[in-house]
Design goal:
- By secondary structure, this protein is an alpha+beta fold.
- The chain folds into four domains: 90 residues, Rossmann fold (3-Layer(aba) Sandwich); 56 residues, Dna Ligase, domain 1, CATH 3.30.1490; 122 residues, ATP-grasp fold, B domain (D-amino Acid Aminotransferase, Chain A, domain 1), CATH 3.30.470.20; 97 residues, Phosphoribosylglycinamide synthetase, C-terminal domain (Glycinamide Ribonucleotide Synthetase, Chain A, domain 4, Alpha-Beta Complex), CATH 3.90.600.
- The protein is 32% helix and 26% strand.
- It has 14 helices and 22 strands.
- The chain has a five-stranded parallel sheet.
- The longest helix has 21 residues.
- Bound molecules: adenosine monophosphate (AMP) and glycine.
- The site of glycine has 8 residues, from loops.
């Protein structure tokens, strides 16, 4: 089979790495990919939003399966476009990807189908938003309705801060059109978990549990990022929480999307807040999480290709997924300044030494090849990911890899996996 992976981050490197292990696969392309995927696939100079070029390539090269990594092409309707030309693609339709593309849509869906979530309001008027904020009080959460690369969420500690955030969004200065409508919601406390399932719209197969680390600094301090590290399994997802997540969140959502005429196929990612044995839903994503995908795929024992293909063909009924009974930990190494403005073009030292460590794999995200060396080219640069017999073992190995790698201004969290350690 010939497979095309769309995207160029750590998630897509992990997907290419896993797909490359399948005996069913003869050739992998990645658009646009990164220097990491280049070692396993042929990178194509096509960006994720150039849908016509991606389609032309897949059509002319008789691609058997296209796997869409990021949200943007899903929201632009890439799966519909490919399917209308007889090409198989893994991911939700445009109508279904709105579950991530509009937070107002997903909150209204949750309310309608009784999926537990924070109390909220949706606003386009500054005055009404202000009144809601004053009534609710702080801390309070302000979210841009549309896609904002994981950065459109402001946890405001005071009403004034929330009001300023709303003004910045509604004026279009902060997140462009993504912020022309805002969701304002109750601040939830607890421990977060990333709960991902694969579904064809009817059958649902849960993936192993995972936990992300959203804040940029140790101890969950500082602004939120796309994710500074992740591990799997997440002990916070006990068998009871797993059951609640399936019964109260995933099943009603998949059924609700079908009832809304938006049948959902692909990965459904629920961001959960767990507290006192109960779950609430923070958000839905229409794709694999990044960095969660990196530790998850390291733990996946099954060949991923028949799973992705079954979803693209619309019948998951015969699919089960086996996992290694091990823990995986991914530490993200990021550029100085991320998630704000950051520098690019610094030479990365130590990649080979880290790559030689047993049980460790360095997934590339924001890297580029320049004059024969690998340089930084994004906010999140690498995902140093290790598999271990225990989470402690995986943490130790991952940080051994991190210690080998450096560039000027490199930043990473020192406490990835700590919450799992506290629970085991
Ligand atoms: P979202 O993209 O909606 O998941 O928000 C990104 C991150 O913001 C989440 O992973 C949480 O860390 C935080 N967050 C979002 N909504 C809330 C909430 N209602 N209460 C507390 N934290 C939240
Ligand atoms: N790591 C969070 C996300 O992929 O949205």
């Amino acid at each position: 089979m010939k497979i095309l992976v769309i995207g160029g981050g750590g998630r897509e490197h992990a997907l290419v790495w896993k797909i490359a292990q399948s005996p069913l696969v003869s050739k992998i392309y990645c658009a646009p990919g990164n220097p990491g995927t280049a070692a396993l696939a042929e990178n194509l100079p096509i960006s994720v939003d150039q849908l016509d070029k991606l389609l032309a390539f897949a059509y002319e090269n008789k691609i058997d399966l296209t796997v869409v990594g990021p949200e943007q092409p899903l929201s632009l309707g890439i799966v519909d476009l490919f399917e209308s030309h007889g090409l198989k693609a893994f991911g939700p339709s445009q109508q279904a990807a709105i579950i991530e593309g509009s937070k107002a849509f997903s909150k209204d869906l949750m309310q309608k189908y009784h999926v537990p979530t924070a109390a909220y309001g949706v606003f386009t008027s500054q005055m009404e938003a202000e009144a809601f904020i004053r009534r609710t009080g702080a801390p309070i959460v302000v979210k841009a309705d549309g896609l904002a690369a994981g950065k459109g969420v402001i946890i405001a500690q005071t009403c004034e801060e929330a009001i300023t955030a709303v003004r910045d969004m509604l004026s279009g200065n902060a997140f462009g059109s993504a912020g022309s409508r805002v969701v304002i919601e109750e601040f939830l406390t607890g421990e977060e978990a990333s709960f991902l399932v694969i579904t064809d719209g009817i059958h649902i197969v849960p993936l192993a549990s995972a936990q992300d680390h959203k804040a940029v600094f140790d101890g969950d301090q500082g602004p939120n990022t796309g994710g500074m590290g992740a591990y799997s399994p997440a002990p916070v997802v006990t068998p009871d929480i797993h059951e609640k997540a399936m019964q109260q969140v995933i099943r009603p959502t998949v059924a609700g999307m079908a009832a809304e005429g938006r049948p959902y196929s692909g990965v459904l990612y629920a961001g959960l807040m767990v507290k006192d044995g109960e779950v609430k839903t923070l958000e839905f994503n229409a794709r694999f999480g990044d960095p969660e995908c990196q530790p998850l795929l390291m733990r996946m024992k099954s060949d991923i290709v028949p799973i992705l293909l079954a979803v693209a063909e619309g019948d998951l009924s015969d699919v089960t997924i086996d996992w290694f009974d091990k823990a995986a930990v991914c530490v993200v190494m990021a550029s100085e300044g991320y998630p704000g403005d950051y520098r690019k073009g610094d030479e990365i030292a130590g990649l080979e030494q880290a790559g030689a460590i047993d049980g460790l794999y360095v997934f590339h995200a924001g890297t580029a090849q320049k004059d024969g060396t690998c340089v930084t080219n994004g906010g999140r640069v690498l995902g140093v990911t290790a598999l271990g017999t225990t989470v402690k073992h995986a943490i130790t190995t991952a940080y051994q890899g991190v210690a080998q790698i450096s560039w000027p201004g490199v930043q990473f969290r020192n406490d990835i996996g700590k919450k799992a350690l506290e629970r085991v």
